[in-house]
Amino acid sequence: MNSLAHGNNTLAVEITNISKHGIWLLAHNKELFMSYEDFPWFKDQAIKSILNVEEPSPGHFYWPDIDVDLTTEIIEHPERFPLKVKNT
Question: pLDDT (tens digit, 9 = 90+) per residue, 22-75?
Fold first, then answer.
């Protein structure tokens, strides 16, 4: 008896957990944590908006409802990319 080959994984990126501390993103079998302290754009968003994440290119994540773009490097090393606020 032959088994059919498994297809490609169509879900390359997903949010696996949302807590009072931050968000966990699973991408290509690697889980990344985004604290609200480092990524404040997510803190007061609706769950639906946080779950709506796309990966337009490998390692580049986009949340269209929030208009946030992040890369794996930014998520893993937020200290290298300090938040900048424009004074008006």
Answer: 999 999 999 999 999 999 999 999 999 999 999 999 999 999 999 999 999 999
Q: Is residue 35 part of a domain?
A: yes
Give the separation between CA 67 and CA 76, rounded to whole angstroms: 20
Q: How many domains does the chain have?
A: 1
Nearest to 34 by CA among 83, 68, 76, 73: 76
Nearest of 62, 64, 63, 59 to residue 77 by alpha carbon: 59
Q: Are 25 and 13 in contact (CB under 8 A)?
A: yes
CA distance 75 to 70: 7
Containing structural domain, residue 51: 13-80
For residue 61, tell me if it sits in a domain: yes
